[in-house]
């Protein structure tokens, strides 16, 4: 694993590595949402990605970058769902044993998907400490290689490929790209892609008010934890890592918080007007743009829809 921030060449190599296994997801537009936002919006639809989320990119790049010796005893990660699916999917592609640690309150649809890829699941309490402790116990027992969900440069390089494609496929020079932020793998990758492939494009993030650690970290200059965690956006509950945060601090223009009500409204617009199944975390970037019309009005704005793995039995509308 490289110990330096991904370069343009690293991201290009990651893209070539994962291309045979992923979808080059479409970029959609919506006159309705253009009207609401006052901007020209270009939606990168990673809800149509393999495993239903952008995480397939980073998971594949991380697993495919491992040596035979590192793969010998399997791979392991902790995740509430989308990264878990990505690693399980990638492990199956390489014939590697896979161990997944999942919080005991993970969405059933995501648990079922991980099981479907043949992973060995262990449940734990939904705290960062419990997740890591459980992983460490399994690594000690099995010798599996741990792949962090976001604080891993190969993961970041893989996630950067979504914005790389968006920049190439939008059909217009983007003034801004907006991505959701949890642990920062997608956001840091997006920021690097903008720096290398579209200089002058500003990168912003959307974050739930109920898991607002990234905005605190961005303002204070050091990694912070949220004062409370309570949001419908279950994929964005983790705090930034020591690899993702410096990239975000250096390359991201601003981070906007949105309420659960605003997330649900954006989610509903995407379902009703664009006919897309989008999970709450995947609607956060859209919610941020709609809430901050003055920032984006009149501009070409790329929006990354991060995933569509929603529990159909628990829709918020």
TrEMBL record:
Transmembrane segments: none annotated. Residues 19-307 form the Tryptophan synthase beta chain-like PALP domain. Keywords: Lyase, Pyridoxal phosphate. The keyword Nucleotide-binding does not apply. GO terms for molecular function: ATP binding; D-serine ammonia-lyase activity; L-serine ammonia-lyase activity; magnesium ion binding; pyridoxal phosphate binding; serine racemase activity; threonine racemase activity. The keyword DNA damage does not apply. It comes from the Bacteria. GO terms for biological process: D-serine biosynthetic process. Its cofactor is pyridoxal 5'-phosphate. Belongs to the serine/threonine dehydratase family. This is Pyridoxal-5'-phosphate-dependent protein beta subunit. It comes from Dyadobacter fermentans (strain ATCC 700827 / DSM 18053 / CIP 107007 / KCTC 52180 / NS114).
């Amino acid at each position: 694993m490289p110990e330096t921030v991904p370069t343009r060449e690293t991201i290009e190599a990651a893209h070539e590595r994962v291309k045979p296994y992923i979808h080059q997801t479409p970029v959609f537009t919506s006159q309705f949402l253009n009207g609401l936002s006052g901007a020209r919006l270009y939606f990168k639809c990673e809800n149509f990605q393999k495993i239903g989320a952008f995480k397939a990119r980073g998971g594949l790049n991380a697993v495919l970058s491992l040596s035979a010796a590192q793969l010998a005893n399997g791979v392991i990660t902790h995740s509430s769902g989308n990264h878990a699916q990505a690693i399980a999917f990638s492990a199956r592609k390489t014939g590697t044993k896979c161990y997944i640690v999942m919080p005991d309150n993970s969405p059933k649809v995501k648990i079922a998907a991980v099981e479907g890829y043949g992973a060995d699941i262990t449940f734990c309490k939904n705290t960062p400490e419990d997740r890591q402790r459980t992983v460490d116990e399994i690594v000690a027992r099995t010798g599996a290689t741990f792949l962090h969900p976001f604080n891993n440069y190969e993961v970041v390089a893989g996630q950067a490929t979504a914005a790389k494609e968006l920049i190439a496929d939008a059909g217009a020079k983007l003034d801004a790209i907006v991505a959701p932020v949890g642990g920062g793998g997608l956001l840091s990758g997006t920021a690097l892609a903008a720096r290398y492939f579209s200089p002058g494009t500003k990168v912003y993030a959307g974050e739930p008010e109920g898991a607002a650690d990234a905005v605190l970290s961005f303002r204070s200059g050091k990694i912070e934890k949220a004062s409370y965690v309570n949001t419908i956006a279950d994929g964005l509950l983790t705090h930034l890592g020591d690899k993702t945060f410096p990239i975000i601090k250096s390359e991201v223009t601003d981070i906007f918080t949105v309420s659960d009500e605003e997330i649900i409204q954006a989610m509903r617009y995407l379902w009703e007007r664009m006919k897309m199944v989008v999970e709450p975390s995947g609607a956060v970037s859209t919610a941020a743009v709609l809430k901050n019309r003055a920032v984006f009005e009149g501009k070409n704005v790329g929006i990354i829809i991060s995933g569509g793995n929603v529990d159909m039995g628990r829709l918020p509308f």
